[in-house]
Amino acid sequence: MIEVSHISKTFQKDTVEVQVLRDISLTIQEGEFVSIMAPSGMGKSTLLNILGCLDKSTEGTYVLDGVPVHDMDDDELSRIRNEKIGFVFQSFHLLPRMTAWENVTLPLVYSDTNSNMKARAVQVLESMGLADRVDHLPRELSGGQQQRVAIARALINNPRIILADEPTGNLDSSSGEEVVRIFRQLHAGGVTLVVVTHDMDVALQADRIIQMKDGRIASDVARARQLEEVAT
Amino acid sequence: MRLLRMSKQAIRAMAENKTRTFLMMLGVIIGVATLTVITSAVLGARAEVMGKVEKWGIDQISVMAGAGRKPGVPQTIPTTLRIEDAQAMLSEIENIKDVSPQINRRDFPVKYAGNSTYGVLIAANPNWSSVWNTRPETGRFLSEEDTGRLARVAVIGKTVQKDLFEDEDPVGKQILVGNNPFEVIGVLEARGTSPTGLDLDTRVVIPLSTGQKRVFNQDYLFMIKTVLHDSSTMGHTVDDVRALLRERHNLQPGVEDDFTIVTPTQVMAIASKLSTIFSVFLILITGISLTVGGIVIANIMFIAVNERREEIGIRRAVGARKVDILVQFLMEAVSVATTGGFIGIIVGLIGLKALAGFIKLPTALMWESIVLALFSAIIVGLLAGIQPAKKAASLNPIEALR
Ligand SMILES: Nc1ncnc2c1ncn2[C@@H]1O[C@H](COP(=O)(O)OP(=O)(O)OP(=O)(O)O)[C@@H](O)[C@H]1O
Ligand SMILES: [Mg+2]
To answer: How many angstroms separate the alpha carbon of residue A144 from the centre of ligand 1?
Structure first.
């Protein structure tokens, strides 16, 4: 599903060059649930943005679903984001003046579908347990509910991949558990999931845990191994 | 479909911040309102002038006594233009079909019972009615017999009738023209204002002979109005008239004409000058307000782009292309400007109504003016929106989302 090889990313800040990712190679199979952990500022979000075709690596290749995307132009990448990828962010990133269902339909605005957008949005919101919050504005919802609206938005176009950047970072523990439960359901349904998190409890829900350090992959182990390591 | 969905969102964005949207619209509203007023007024005025000139007669030229005369502008006149000149013009110039020699005097006092008013006193022959294409509505016009016996009879215009008689039937009544008693024998049909702004219904027409001997005590004329057979050769006829009159008045080469020949084109030019001054002023207001309106829209759009960085980032993340963002912000600018344009048209129409109450402004609601107003609003929206929209489209989604 996801194959990146030897990618690196350098940010140009004024005259200083900051190398955030160094020679990262990574393969994620279809349907895998992977979590990425690292201390702050180690390049987790940068990697996730590249995986999500929001950003481009400075070097290296990226083959997504059998298609090389590293030399696609901006419009082609936009289409891939729209069709294949759903983003979930730490701070939800909902449009404040739009109701829950309108926020959820946002990806459909830029897709080729002509179906009844509201009906689809309501259906996905129901599956998130938000049937009675369809017409609410984000500020009328709790953090956990807002994040579930954001997940519904990520899912509306039936993407094959969900990328989540600290999805539980702004949530209390019970809301966080709810989000994790939803991720497990999605995983069971065959969606490929990559979750960046600081929270070991969240990370341990994944099949596979990747640790980063100084822009490199420090360890990449299955959950069983990680459990052992945590135990010792 | 995609465009339809995006335009819905643009209209929503406009409704979301009403104060700001109104501010953005203000310049366009003012600009388009004045534009509506101008085009309607100018087009209306032009249509009316054309109508009047047609009534005045496009196959007619007038010879006014005195050099450098302008229609509608009073000045002292020489004594050289005479009734014999009129007769000579009719008999010697082939293209002249008819002539109306006449003496005019403005602001002449006319009285009846306790009422008094001022009119344009015209001493003319019975053919005045056909030459000026103005017939009596009630009663009769002057006859050859009236002329022959220097009759003290008068045909009056509608305004004079209203001022002196109100609802009374004036025919057969005695009025005072200056200090001379005259019998009203008819009332002229309404003519409105002349192309130069004179109320034609204040005219009081008496026989030329009576006017010369009993009122003005002069044998020279004020003007000779002529009707032509063929108006396409008007230029030649004007030359012929000039040559004939110069010869009859013994003017040596190099000496200025002692008369002025006025053609319908000149009348039109003078009339349109009036509306030109007015419209130049309004075009200035339009230009300034549309420019200011455009600058305001552009600036507020720049602020909005900055404030909505997160929104732009989100849209890009869920699949919006750069052009989608560009089009979204452009549509917002254009819909604000167009809505401002619609409001401006309404304000302009209300303004026209109000203006019509003050000055006698010919107003015609013209489709051209509405199309022009909307078109300029859209152009302003596009010009004002393009730079902010480009900025929005080129935002890096990663930085917009941080
Ligand atoms: N657009 C950018 N321009 C310059 N530097 C950047 C840019 N984006 C990220 N960086 C730098 O790259 C490094 C990695 O950033 P990144 O956001 O990927 O870290 P992170 O691991 O997600 O951290 P956190 O846990 O705090 O979210 C940081 O030092 C950051 O300052
Ligand atoms: Mg991060």
So the answer is: 25
CB-nearest to B318 from A81, A97, A112 is: A81
Domains and CATH numbers, chain A: 2-231 (3.40.50.300)
Closest Cα partner for A196 from A47, A56, A54, A77? A47
Q: What are the 10-residue block averages of pLDDT along chain B, 402 residues in total? A: 75 80 88 81 68 66 80 70 92 92 92 90 94 91 93 93 89 92 94 76 94 91 90 86 92 88 74 66 81 91 93 96 94 91 89 68 62 88 95 94 88
CB B104 within 8 A of CB B120: yes
Nearest CA of chain A to the CA of B394: how many Å? 11
For chain B, the domains span 2-51+269-401, 79-257
In whole angstroms, what is the distance from residue B173 CA to residue B182 CA? Answer: 8
Residues belonging to chain A? 232
Do A110 and B320 count as a contact with CB atoms less than 8 A apart? yes
- C-alpha to C-alpha distance for B270 and B268, rounded to whole angstroms: 5
Establish if A97 touches chain B: CB-CB under 8 angstroms: yes
Atom of ligand 1 nearest to the CA of A38: 21
ipTM score assigned to the predicted complex: 0.95
Pairing of strands B96-112, B115-124: antiparallel
A103: three-class secondary structure by DSSP: helix
